[in-house]
Amino acid sequence: MKRVIAIMTAVLLSACTAKAPEPTPASSAAPTPKPAADRPTAALASATPETPQTNGGDTENYDDLRVAFLGTVNSERPRAYVVMRAAEELGLAMAAEVDEDHVIYGDRGTYEDNVYLIIPAPNTDLRVGRYNWYADEITEVWYEEENSPAIIYVESAESDAPLGRIEYVRHFPDGDTDGFIYTGFDLGDRVLRTAFHMGVVDITPYDAFSSDEIPFKEQALFDALMQNEEVSQALNAGGELMKMGEMWYDANMYLHYVLRQGNTDTYWAVGNLPDGTVDIIWSEDGKNWTHPAKG
Fold it and tell me: What is the C-alpha separation between 188 and 152, in angstroms, rounded?
């Protein structure tokens, strides 16, 4: 089963790639954060997942690991500012509580690029390191801890950034669950890849960022589609999601996908409306589009 999930995950990951812009060297001076009045009011109530009594047998658990994009390091936004802003403006106070021993770099800290907050559920072990695709194992460990607290992961800014992997094992009385996230996928991509059907939940408050602050717009849209209930349920049941390309609908650009379940195909598209909100539409024939039913 894990082998099937891994293969499906690789297909999904390679189907949706986007490149971050070339970063500039980090500055030691942090800009002043926006005043409280300008901060988003919809802060996350809690980023810590609750511990269920069991793992539910074959039912996938969506709370093994939570991931939030905090920002990108550049000449105006050093890592300290990216973390501070996330804690004070984005509702991710936990980011400021991570000590230096739990700040993990994809290249041992030589360069800095995208910054993420990784929040394991209780009773979860983390292992982060350089991943060898052909050997299917981590060959250089950067971080390993049982019952790990939250960590901050900083991706490399090099074009030949090492392919990394964040592995997790969550312990339950009736058995463990495990999974992983690829980092630096397809050398130079530098995009943390989440796999929601493997227990990872993206809690990034995307609406708090401007378009120039999200260097992986396509990934953000893909993540939004993956969180759709019908799509996630279909993938958990063994379905496949394949990217068809881009399309125009109602004067807006959408990413176009086909969702295959057995011998049945449905078509899905996700894009941004002019006000920046994410819009998801679907079709039975790929021609007549509508919005999925609510509730």
Answer: 20
Rounded Cα distance between 236 and 199, Å, is 11
**In the chain, where are the structural domains located?**
59-207
> Do β-strands 278-283 and 177-183 pair in parallel, antiparallel, or remain unpaired?
unpaired
Cα torsion for 105, 13, 186, 270, to the nearest 10°?
-100
Residue type, 255: L
Which residues, 6 or more positions from 84, have their beta carbon under 8 angstroms from its beta carbon? Answer: 30, 33, 96
Secondary structure letter of residue 277 according to DSSP:
-
What is the Cα–Cα distance from 59 to 133, expressed in whole angstroms? Answer: 28
Place of tokens 């006000």: 275
Compute the Cα dihedral for 23, 10, 223, 217 and give only its sign.
positive
Residue by residue, pLDDT tens for the chain (295 residues) are 344 344 444 444 444 333 333 333 333 333 333 433 343 333 344 566 554 434 443 444 557 888 888 988 888 888 999 999 999 988 899 999 999 999 998 866 667 888 899 999 999 999 999 888 788 899 999 999 999 999 999 887 665 666 788 999 999 998 888 888 888 655 445 566 665 556 777 788 877 877 667 655 666 688 788 888 899 888 888 888 888 877 888 888 888 899 999 889 999 999 878 776 889 999 998 889 999 875 4
- CA–chain centroid gap for 139, Å, is 23
Six-digit token pair at 224?
């939004």
Spatial distance between the Cα atoms of 208 and 191, rounded to a whole number of angstroms: 19
C-alpha closest to that of 219 among 179, 270, 286, 277: 270
Spatial separation of the C-alpha atoms in residues 291 and 154, rounded to whole Å:
37
* Residue (of 288, 269, 293) closest to 279 by Cα position: 269
